[in-house]
Amino acid sequence: MTGRKPAIFVDKDGTLVENVPYNVNPELLEFRPGALQAMADLAQQGYELVVVTNQSGVARGYFSEAELLVLRDALARRLREEAGVQLRGFQFCPHQASPDGAPVCVCRKPLPGMIEEAGDLYDIDLARSWMIGDTLDDVEAGSGAGCRTILYDSGGETVWKPGPGRAPSARCTAWEEVVRIILEPA
Q: Chief localization class (predicted)?
């Protein structure tokens, strides 16, 4: 286990970037206030950065995986150029939830599949990692993978459905708070 690095797993829409529904246009990519500086601060402390995002627009036929990967590349380039941060991974679930909202795969959040896959791919220590997202599904995915979790309360959570693994380690409304909590001595 030695040598495994911690990571910041971060939801894309509504957390890292502004939520523009079903967007794959790099020109509409706008970082949430404070997100770039937060990513730089966390990377400087040795955290890998991995985006984990549900992208049902692929299954719905709104855009292709190739179009999503163009957006991924633009996101990675901007993180590198504007914050000096290397994006370690971009895990996405291209599936649509079932009509009752339940996942139909092992990768769709609230299941931890994308986080666990990234942990294996990038040799990440999940117990020392954090999942940051704007919904309790993000929190549940992080908890299920063994990460600490932060609900980045930007208004994305609308259901507030309680349950096992859905209580975040912390709740914040600003990226500055997120960084302070993560870097605070235990």
A: cytoplasm
pLDDT in tens, 70-90: 999 999 999 999 999 999 999
Which pTM was predicted? Answer: 0.95
DSSP tag of 4: P
Catalytic (active-site) positions: 11, 13
Q: 117 with 97: CB under 8 angstroms?
A: no
Domain boundaries along the sequence of the chain: 7-183
pLDDT at 176 over 90: yes
Question: What's the CATH architecture for 7-183?
Answer: 3-Layer(aba) Sandwich (3.40)
Where does the pLDDT of residue 1 fall: very low under 50, low under 70, confident under 90, or very high at 90 and above?
A: very low
3-state helix, strand, coil in the chain (%, to 5): 35, 20, 45
Q: Cβ distance 34 to 175 under 8 Å?
A: yes
Residues listed for the chain:
186
Query: Which residue, 61, 70, 50, 66, is CA-closest to 22?
Result: 61
| Buried b / exposed e along 97-130 (16+ C-beta atoms within 10 A) | beeeeebeeebbbbbbbbbbbbbeeeebbbeebb
